[in-house]
Design a protein that fits this description.
By secondary structure, the protein is α+β, with helices and mostly antiparallel strands. It is elongated and about 100 Å long. Strands 7-14-13-8 form a 4-stranded antiparallel β-sheet. The protein contains 17 helices and 20 strands. Helix 8 links the parallel strand 9 and strand 10. The chain starts with 21 loop residues before the first strand and ends in an 11-residue tail after the last helix.
Length: 552
């Protein structure tokens, strides 16, 4: 009786996490993550396609950016929700890997999550959904490789035409779409001037000069960079040279004051004069060695002082100091010289050359141009335009086109754009899903429906009747897949048409990378069922500092 009346023992409360830590788990947390991702997708949804809108973003430093590039917008949005940041990562990865399709990959990932949201609410295991996603992705990628059309590289005219079509397609949705004929030639010429094995996009320099029109932009077959800071003697130097001998240095050519705390003790004036003479002798020895090597153009990453500037001007030699590392590297690549860290032992073998060097006024800036480089594996695009924001967006647009052409050079297989390949994949997955048993059939069908977001959004952004266009596309692809496989949304003609015949081409790698990245991001978000965050980490993500404790 005494044992029966005894009070039950209280279990001690076990505190594992620090006070203030927030934990969210289960289906509500999963649905919250999906909602956050859909909110991010809605932000950039209207930027897709040739008729997509631009976004004006003002950052914390009040800098204004106008862009419709998916990766740029995602980076500037400063998304703080942990799951939604996954979409930012895949947009950056798509931009770094292939350059184009950054908006498409985010929309596709969001649509995949939207289509399976009801399955999550009904209690379907996320592992079943993840398995279905990966199965559908493998089927889609295999189908793209099966449909992709390859162009023979041996036929030079046809190969160049392929690159121009890919560049023009990527420009359709950009600010430079109205001038795509002009910029298409420029981008293809720039990529073909690179080393065709390495295809290092860093060897294409892009310089921006405010003023003028877009058509005033030019491609320099070689290297061009803005005139660096110079001293008075600079104006006496030659401004154009034929067959110059070029030396690139990482050497400082100026008299410098002694560093802090340096001390030289002397007893006689003659000793002090000896120290001064030694400093002058050191710099004159360097200058004499450069002249003795036969150099007529001297470039250095470090400063070239007034003494050296006048010395070179007296000997009809051009010099420029404080040249950026990227520009020096491209000069070396184009002219065949190598950066020297000392002038000792400098010989003619260390010098480079080109057909012509000149300093030229472009807009309000003076540029140094190296043309006709014998080992030219580099080039420079000089962009002109009205406003800085405008030129910045043109640069981003050209970067995307350069990356697309670069990928087309490495992989000569292309597919039709304009939502054609997505509609064909959607039809293919729907047909394949009928042969799959169990819940996987529903997931593969959901992926097929999600792929339709690309042509649907293209129609919405262009102001077309979305229901009518999607119905037509579904009917044609189902009616005769071989005949209508490349039919998509023709924005210019405002109809459903064969976009491969109209040369709306994209590298197959862009689509393959977009689908695999979108599926991996969706699988990652669905695999997270619990979020643990403390107040300090939330403050850091919000850009603030944790609150200090109160003193007593």
């Amino acid at each position: 009786m005494a044992a029966r009346g005894r009070m039950p023992m209280m279990q001690p409360q076990v505190i594992v996490l620090k006070e203030g830590t927030d934990t969210s788990q289960g289906v509500p947390q999963l649905l919250s993550n999906i909602s956050a991702c859909l909110a991010v997708c809605d932000t950039i949804r209207t930027t897709l396609g040739p008729r997509g809108m631009d976004k004006l973003i003002v950052d914390g430093q009040r800098r204004v950016t106008i862009s419709n590039d998916g990766a740029t917008i995602m980076k500037l949005l400063e998304v703080v929700q942990p799951a939604a940041r996954t979409l930012v990562d895949i947009a950056r990865a798509q931009d770094a890997e292939v350059g184009d399709g950054t908006t498409s990959v985010v929309l596709l990932a969001g649509e995949l999550l939207k289509e399976v949201r009801e399955f999550v609410e009904e209690g379907v295991s996320t592992q079943v959904i993840v398995k279905g996603f990966r199965r559908a992705a493998d089927m889609s990628i295999a189908r793209i490789r099966e449909l992709a059309v390859s162009v023979d590289r041996a036929d030079g005219a046809e190969y160049r035409s392929l690159l121009e079509k890919c560049a023009a397609t990527s420009m359709n949705s950009k600010l430079i779409g109205s001038q795509k004929e002009f910029f298409t030639q420029m981008v293809v010429d720039a990529v073909l001037r690179l080393d065709q094995e390495e295809l290092d996009e860093n060897m294409i320099g892009i310089k921006k000069i405010a003023g003028g029109a877009m058509q005033d932009s030019l491609l320099v077959d070689g290297v061009a960079f803005k005139k660096s800071f110079s001293y008075a003697g600079f104006e006496q130097q030659p401004k154009s040279l034929d067959a110059p001998r070029i030396v690139c240095l990482n050497v400082e050519l100026e008299l410098k004051a002694e560093k802090d705390n340096a001390e030289v003790r002397v007893e006689r004036v003659s000793e002090y004069q000896a120290v001064v003479d030694a400093e002058w002798k050191i710099i004159f020895d360097k200058l004499d060695q450069i002249v003795a090597a036969g150099a007529t153009v001297v470039l250095s990453r470090l400063p070239i002082g007034d003494l050296a500037t006048q010395y070179f001007a007296d000997r009809n030699i051009f010099c420029a100091g404080r040249v950026s590392k990227d520009d020096i590297d491209r000069v070396c690549e184009a002219t065949g010289c190598r950066v020297q860290s000392t002038t000792s032992g400098l010989a003619a073998a260390h010098l480079g050359t080109c057909e012509r060097f000149e300093e030229r006024q472009i807009g309000g800036q003076r540029f140094n141009l190296f043309r006709g480089c014998p080992q030219a594996k580099t080039c420079t695009i000089v962009l002109r335009g009205g406003a800085e924001q405008f030129i910045d967006e043109v640069e981003r647009s050209l970067h995307d086109s350069i990356m697309v052409v670069r990928r087309a050079v490495k992989n000569q297989s292309v597919v039709a754009g304009g939502g054609a390949i997505e509609m064909e994949l959607s039809r293919y997955l729907r047909d394949a899903a009928r042969q799959i048993e169990g819940k996987q059939q529903l997931i593969v069908t959901a992926v097929a429906k999600a792929l339709e977001v690309i042509p649907r959004q293209l129609c919405e952004n262009a102001g077309f009747d979305t229901t009518d266009f999607i119905t037509q596309l579904r009917a044609r692809h189902a009616q005769d897949p071989d005949r209508f496989r490349w039919h998509g949304v023709d924005i210019e003609a405002e109809e459903v048409a064969d976009l491969f015949a109209k040369f709306v081409w994209e590298p197959a790698l862009v689509k393959i990378n977009a689908i695999s990245s979108a599926v991996e991001a969706a699988c990652l978000i669905l695999s997270v069922d619990e979020t643990v965050s403390n107040q300090q980490s939330q403050d850091m993500m919000a850009g603030g500092q944790p609150m200090p404790g109160r003193g007593r």
